[in-house]
Each structure stands twice: as structure tokens, then as C-alpha cells.
Structure to design on (126 residues):
């Protein structure tokens, strides 16, 4: 299908599931030891590339025709509240991480200072 208006609103999982295997096929053709030297190898690479491009174009068409953005005001408010909670949670995690890094940094500095003091004491003649 070349026209995205004719796409069904449901996504065909098999179409999207075949993108990666077709990309792998193209890569395998390009990585073979004989390369794309022979006419048969060139033809196989061309066919694999065209299949990948066609599948990708179909997938883009389906993805582009998806409906979205149709939340009512209550759903939008719920989404905003959920995202704000997520933001606050991430901010708290970041703060805890920063505190741990600061603590570990200070512990490492104290250990380094103590080691230098021990080294200098050990090397000082009596």
C-alpha cells in the first residue's frame, strides 16, 4: 500500500516484527566474505535492500496514520498529575544519588589523605 489513508487503524505486528530480520539480511549480504562481487551477490543484496526499504515504508505509513491526542480534559489532568509525580520521584532519586556520590567522594578523599599520612609517616626517618 502506497497510500497511508488506506491503512487500517490496527498495526500489523508481523510487519513491524519483520523490519529487524530484513535489516539483518541486508547486513549479512554486505558482510559476506565474497562481498557483492558476483552478479548473483549484487542481485541478492539489491533484493534484500529493496525488501527492507519497502517494509520500512509500509511501517512508516502505518505509524503515521495512527490516531492520537484525543484525551478529554479529565484524562489530561490525570496524565499531568502522573507526570508530575514521576518528575518528583525522579528528582528525589537524583538527589539521593547526588548525596551518595558526595559521600563516596568525601570518603575517598579521607582515605587518600589517611594513606598519604601513613606513607609519609612510614618514610620519615626516626
Amino acid at each position: 500500500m502506497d497510500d497511508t489513508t488506506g491503512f487500517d487503524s490496527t498495526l500489523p505486528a508481523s510487519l513491524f516484527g519483520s523490519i529487524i530480520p530484513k535489516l539483518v539480511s541486508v547486513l549479512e549480504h554486505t558482510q559476506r566474505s565474497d562481498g557483492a562481487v558476483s552478479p548473483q551477490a549484487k542481485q541478492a543484496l539489491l533484493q534484500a535492500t529493496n525488501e527492507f526499504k519497502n517494509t520500512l515504508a509500509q511501517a512508516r505509513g502505518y505509524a503515521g496514520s495512527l490516531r492520537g491526542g484525543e484525551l478529554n480534559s479529565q484524562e489530561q489532568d490525570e496524565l499531568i498529575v502522573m507526570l508530575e509525580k514521576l518528575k518528583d520521584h525522579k528528582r528525589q532519586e537524583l538527589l539521593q544519588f547526588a548525596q551518595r556520590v558526595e559521600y563516596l567522594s568525601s570518603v575517598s578523599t579521607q582515605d587518600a589523605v589517611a594513606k598519604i599520612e601513613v606513607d609519609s609517616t612510614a618514610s620519615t626517618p626516626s
Observations:
- Helices lie at 13-17, 19-31, 39-64, 73-123.
- The chain has four helices and no strands.
- The radius of gyration is 30 Å.
- The longest helix spans residues 73-123.
